Each structure stands twice: as structure tokens, then as C-alpha cells.
Amino acid sequence: MYEQTNRFATMRSSQGRFSRLALRVAIGLLVLGHGRNDAESAESSAFGFQAFSSRDYGLELDSEALQDARDSAREALKRTFTAGAPSAGGEHVWVLDDYLSEEGLETARSYLMGTTWWGFKLTGRDGKDQEAGGDGVPWGARINTEDFSRLATGRELQMLATTYRMGLGDSSTNGNDDDDVVDADDIPYLLPYEVTYKVVRRGDLTSIHYGSPEEIAENEVWMMLFLNDEWRANNYGDVIIYDGDKEIIGGASNLFARLLVWKPSLGYLCRPPSIGYSQGENILMVKWTTNTSKCLQHEKQRRADRAEIESGIMEGFPFRSASDLQVGAEVDVGKHEVLRRLAPTGKRIVAFDDLFTDEELLALRSYVMSHGKVFYDDSIDAYSDNVQWISGFEVHYFVQSKFWKIIKNVAAHVSDGAGDWYPYDISCNIIRSYDHTRIHGDVRNERDDEWTFLLYLSPMDENDFGETAFFTSKTDKTETVYQVRPRYGRSVIFEGLIPHAARPPSPKFKGPRYSFAVKMAKTPSRAVQNIFYEKVSQGAGQRSEALGLDEDPVDPEAFVQRLTKKYSGEVGALNRSLFKFEENVRKWRQTIIKNLMQQSTEA
Questions:
Q1: Alpha carbon 484 to its chain's center
Q2: SS3 for 564?
């Protein structure tokens, strides 16, 4: 456990810099984030769960450390404002800049992006909170509070929350009116019971949100940290604070590393970015409490929710019994074909209706919404599809379902029986009205004979847009070949070389457009090679020993070619090598997080 003497000063210099240890911890956690099912097992093994019932959770402040924390907060405090309405109790709001370093915060943002499991919740404008949280921000990721409290960043924010509760020693900032030494027994021990990484995007229907009576009574401290390193004034994205009568008392513009601190008796509103800003606003929200039991309960619930998702993944896709597989293999897909078009290159686009029953569609939609690993990428890349939210699934589980039997029949039907089709990429694209998708192709190598199958899983009418559009090229001189309306349950399969784009739904369509996508190669061997290529590409920037490879840097294409030659393209050997590869990466990541987190505790 940390020594009691001047711990704050040893972790943070007067310039507000993260310790090097914090940087190493964040980098280690980022590496962990590329894995599939190893993150939770690693975080659970790093520390015993009993820490929640001890004072080892986080950092316990003494009088000297509190004074150091006050000095640092004064240095970073940009301004304060106070609720004028009596119903709000005259609470102060703090706005702080440069409390944490830019270097450390950029690494922390990468850590958050790499280790989180995103969740989507849609709230409406009916005056009611439809989900816990109630601020209307659809995308959020709940962070492991135990690990967060042990990071240097978490400790620094814990000190800030404690300082806010105690005040800076003057009447304008809450708490005590003097700088006298405070008895250690009077210093509250604050714990982070809810840490959420939020992404606010243009078009989001956010709402004012206040704390519950319990949260207000327990005198909690709430905090937001802005994580966009570049932001312009006309991008909007302010966080607005309201008093108890829902009158605006102040707000804070989005500046990188800015902190906003307040109490839950005041309401907050995350103002979405402007229409002109196509990326996301990244905010870390932390709620602090002195209620240790509450902290324990929330973290246990987070882990239980995560375990439920994992359990569903391990169980596999619905409709996987022997009888389901037999029925799927016998579906006469030709009877369901509703249109066929050719691109100028002769490449085919074929659509089908009612391949799947209502029961199957509902089960698949429920599964992909609940058990996918959601990836978020809003980087600006002119060559990608620019689909910023994608839910990914393992091929191994998918091929054991009735859905694959039917889709494989479809591939055989449109290719006139040529090829032993096998999937290499299973995902669900999640697109909303204000997204900006781009024309792209699905094939890495233009010589490859590959198909993409899409199944539309959102009930949409003819005025909701959301079509899949096909083009003659990816240039500005392109012409439209055809557009497929995304009717619920409709499927379209096309050759992956055809340039295409998923169009966003109409602004009046408030939900997401879900399209379940299956990319297929002509042989199982080629499919496994493609899977391997993607796995190696994702880790190309990591250390070579993490990948179980000899060279550094890693060349994904050369690696896959050597592996294919070694096993003469035999799919069983390739699969065994793939599993060994993933296990090597998983073990390395678990070692990294365990060692670095242990160092953070002992520092």
C-alpha cells in the first residue's frame, strides 16, 4: 500500500505530469484491448476481488496529502460558478485545465479505447429515462473501477474529488473556510463506483440528467474529463449545468484535458457536436462515493453483465441443433431470389426475401445486439467504409449455426456451384442517421474470388432510406449501378470487388440501421488465411514476441504466405496454428497487465 507521507507530490510534479509508471500501465492496458475474451480474465487475476472491502482500494489521504492536493487544484482551477436557485443548495461547479498532462491523457484515451466493451442504449424524448444513466448518450463503455482506482490517473482524480468535497480552504469553493490542517479522520475516503467512457455524436438526442435522491443524499462527487485533443469552438460539444429548477447556471466548452466537477443535485447536459463535425466527442465520466458497499455492488454487476455476454458468445449463435442444421441445408434458396443485377464489369448483385423466418430474424437480431464485441473507429480514412461502429463475431461459432447453412447455399446458388465457400469475417454494421459512410470494396486482393452477404435487421419503411448502393468505381466520376432497399429480413449477396456503400437512414429514423455481414472466400483455406491476415495486421504494431513471431516489424502478407506454404494450404493445420497464435498473444497480454498493475500498486 502507498506510504502515507506526501504521496500526492511523489506521483505528480508541479507541472501536472503523469508519472512514467502511469504511462507504462496505460500502454500495457492498451495492448490488452486487442484481445477477444482475455481482458476480463486478466483484470480479475491481477488483483483479488476482496480489495473492495479494504482501504487498499484507491488512495487514503492524510492532512499533508490533502494540502498538496489543494495546492495543485488551485493551480489548475480555471473558474467556478454556483447554482443560484435555493433548490440546488448553492452548490459550486469547478472547471479545471492542465490538471493532468497531455501525454498521459492521450495514452489514457488509447487505454480506454482498447480495453472497453461498448454498449448501445437508445433513449427517447418522452421525458423519461429509458435506461439507467438517463443522459441520452447512446454509446458508453463501463470501465473496471478496481483497476481504474489503482492507476496513477485514477488516484489523481480521486484526490481531486476529495479536494472538491473538502474545499480549497476558502468560501468560494465548497467546504472549509480556512487552510488549517484537517484531521485525517475528517477526510472522506472516496471511491469510483461508476466509470463510463462516453461518445457523443452529432444528432444524438441527449437529455438533462440529475442524480437520484440516494446519490444526492450521499453527497457524491461527479466528474467529467474531455478527451478530444483537437476541438474547435464551432464544433459545439459543451457540457451545460442546470440548477434544481432546470435553469442554466453555467457550462464548459470542450478543451482537451479539461475537468468539470459538480454534485448530483445539479443537472448536466452533454450538448452534441455540430452537424459539421463528423467524429465523436469523447468524455470520461466518473462518479465518486464514500459508500464502499455501493462500489462493490456496481463492480460486481458490471462483471456479471460482462460474464453474461461472454457466456452467450461461448454458447454460440441460435439455431444450431442437428435438426436446425439439416433444415438449413435443405432450404431452396432459388425460390427466394427477387432480383439480379450485373455491374459493368460483369460482377453480380443478387437479392433474396424471406430466407429466414420471423423467429430466426428476431433471434439473430437479439444475439448480435447482445453478444457482439463492438469496435469503435472514427479515424478519418478515405479508403475505408467509414462505418464507425461494428460488432464482430467469431467464425468458429457462426459456422455451427443454421444461418451459415442457408448462407452457404446462397453462395453456391449465385456462383453456380463453384467453390467450397467459407466465411472469414462476421460482423454487424451499426449505422445511424448522421453517420458519413463511404464507397469502398471488400476484397483485399483483386484476384480473389470473394462474396459478401448482407442481411438487414432493422424494421424500416420506404421513407427511412438506408439503402445499400453499388457503383461503377470509387472515384468522384462514379455512376450508380443499383441500390437495394433495406427491408427487414431482406438479404443481398454480391461480389466483393464491386464498389458499394451503406447509406445512413433518414433523420426521422431514430434507431440504428443494423446490417449483418458475412464475407466469404472460395475455399476454407483461403478464408483462414484472410482471418490470419486480419489478426496479424491488428497486432502489427505490437512487439514481435507478443505475436509469437520472429521478425519485427511484422509483415502480415509475407507471414500468411509463409504459413500457407508451410502447411500446403491445409485448413486443419492452418486453424491449429491460428489457435496457437491467439493463445500466445492472449498469454502475453495477461502477463503485461498483471505485471504493470502490480508495479502500479507497489509504487
A1: 29
A2: helix
pLDDT per residue as tens digits for the range 529-576: 888 777 766 654 444 444 455 554 556 667 666 666 666 656 667 667
Beta-bridge partners for 437: none
Cis preceding linkage at 553, omega within 30: yes
- Dig out the grid coordinates for 117 from the structure: 466493451
> Residue 579 contacts by C-beta under 8 Å, 6 or more apart in sequence?
none
The model carries a pTM of 0.82
CA nearest to 460, candidates 516, 406, 504: 504
Q: Which domain holds residue 337?
A: 316-522
DSSP E strands: which ranges in 343-459?
A: 348-352, 373-376, 389-393, 422-431, 451-456
172, part of any domain: yes
Contact at 8 Å (CB) between 566 and 527? no
Domain boundary among 255, 281, 308: 308
312 and 363 Cβ atoms separated by less than 8 Å: no
Whether residues 301 and 323 fall in one domain:
no
Task: Look up cell 509469437; give the residue.
Answer: 548
The verdict on 294 and 332 lying in the same domain is no
Contact predicate 89/83, CB 8 Å: yes
> Whole-angstrom Cα distance, residue 116 to residue 126?
30
Give the pLDDT confidence of 12-36 residue by residue, as tens digits.
333 333 333 333 333 333 333 333 3
Element (DSSP H or E) covering residue 216: helix 213-217
